[in-house]
Amino acid sequence: MANLKQIALGMFHETLAAIDIPRTMRRKLSREGSRILVNGAPVDLSAFERICAIAIGKASAAMTRGLAESFSPDFRAEGIVVAPTAASGLPQGFRAMVAGHPVPNEGSFAAARTILDLLAAANERTLVFFLLSGGGSALVELPLDIPPAPGITLEDMQALHRALVTCGASIDEINAVRKHLSAVKGGRLAIAAGSAMKITLAVTDVPEGQESALASGPTLPDPTTVSDACGVVRRYELLSKLPPNIRARFEHPESIQETPKAGDPAFDARRSSFQILLGQDDLFHFARRASESAEFVTVCDNTTDNWPVEKAVDFLLEQLGTLKKANPGKRVAVIADGEVSSPVTGNGIGGRNLAFALDAVKKIAGRKIAVLSAGTDGVDGSSPAAGAIADGETLARAQSLGLDPADYFQRSDSYAFFHALGDTIETGPTGNNLRDLRILLAE
């Protein structure tokens, strides 16, 4: 079974290596002379007096370098790069800003103000590239000023974010609330860019068809409404947990300004486009290739996206068992992506990927199975790990050390459990952020 663990780890690292952002950008933004192709349509760079780029998210530095390489040496862009850690090696003309994640901080507010100032100077002869990747919702934030109500402070926004990410709500539900209180989310950066040509390029960690969830959709029309946001607050009993200035908004929904919708001139297809550079299909493609190269009969499944963690573990293990029965004598793999829901119930250190692996420990005990769950960004929740790996021997090893998986799960302390066993996956920030990846192997 140790061999299965090593194989799963090898598959994960091989997949990470295959998701190279600059190379992808060079391939998908092919340029001939002054023209580049965006969604198959040519854009003439020479038609603009100024080219700007606003890069937001965990992959912002890599995306900026990829864009600059696509332009080089004939064209140059300038702009802002916002990331959770200091970005190095940026092209000339770009300003790096460090901001908070997963909770916004002063840097998040400063980044939002700087971006809005840049966009205020854009006109019809300006081309703006928005380079978006996961984490942007916290990295760039600024409350929408709605006088005469009391202003929302940074502390208020931090309390809101913490309440939302720990209540068990889905990413769509979380964003429905955040968008309606923000000056930069839910299409409001597109509005701020006015008459400029806007091209959004995305490395997405959200499901296909839900692109407005990425970084809370700053350049896309918002499909959610004030009513949706209020419904989330009510459904998860959040009202009493919100700071007074935000609670007052939801007690009086008429005070909440609706987000920009489809049909607004800012989203006119002649002046605004959105293209996914890397997403779910790419993650599955490379992970499946790694699995099949190791001679596993492989099935990819994204059914469990946004499911409760325990239900997701049960379903994927059942899929693995079914696949094994259908292929006797062969090694099999189930590969899944997306996020699972894992509400915080204790004061420990962990994240949804660590929780997924921890929930699997007792369920696979004694069986020739390995279960890996990790974030492609290299960070899982409040932990320093990307995730963890478990196999049929993990429970026995844990019990020999006096570790009870159920106790650690209840305390939301999954990182401590796997760290004691040496089974955390610690890559450090990868500079990428597609989706969480789960690899289940059986022999």
Strand order in the largest sheet: 6-5-4-7-8-9
Q: Given the helix and strand composition, which structural class is it?
A: alpha/beta
At CATH's second level, what is the architecture of the largest domain? 3-Layer(aba) Sandwich
Number of strands: 15
Distance between the termini: 9 Å
Assembly of the depicted chains: single chain
Q: How would you describe this structure in keywords?
A:
Rossmann fold, six-stranded parallel sheet, six-stranded mixed sheet, glycerate kinase, domain 1, 443 residues
Describe the secondary-structure layout.
Layout: H1 2-18, H2 21-28, E1 31-32, E2 35-38, E3 41-44, E4 50-56, H3 60-71, E5 78-83, E6 94-98, H4 106-120, E7 126-133, H5 136-139, H6 154-165, H7 171-179, H8 188-192, E8 197-203, H9 226-235, H10 244-251, E9 272-278, H11 280-293, E10 297-301, H12 309-326, E11 332-337, H13 352-363, E12 369-375, E13 387-391, H14 394-400, H15 405-410, H16 414-421, E14 424-425, E15 436-442
Parallel strand pairs: 4-5, 4-7, 5-6, 7-8, 8-9, 10-11
Antiparallel strand pairs: 1-2, 2-3, 11-15, 12-13, 12-15, 13-14
Helix pairs in contact: 1-11, 2-3, 7-9, 12-13
Structure description:
- The structure is a single chain.
- By secondary structure, this protein is α/β, with parallel strands linked by helices.
- The protein has 2 domains: 21-278, Glycerate kinase, MOFRL-like N-terminal domain (Rossmann fold); 281-442, MOFRL domain (glycerate kinase, domain 1, 3-Layer(aba) Sandwich).
- The protein has helices at 2-18, 21-28, 60-71, 106-120, 136-139, 154-165, 171-179, 188-192, 226-235, 244-251, 280-293, 309-326, 352-363, 394-400, 405-410, 414-421, and strands spanning 31-32, 35-38, 41-44, 50-56, 78-83, 94-98, 126-133, 197-203, 272-278, 297-301, 332-337, 369-375, 387-391, 424-425, 436-442.
- It has a 6-stranded parallel sheet, sandwiched between helices.
- The chain is globular.
- The protein starts with a helix and ends with a strand.
- The mean pLDDT is 93.
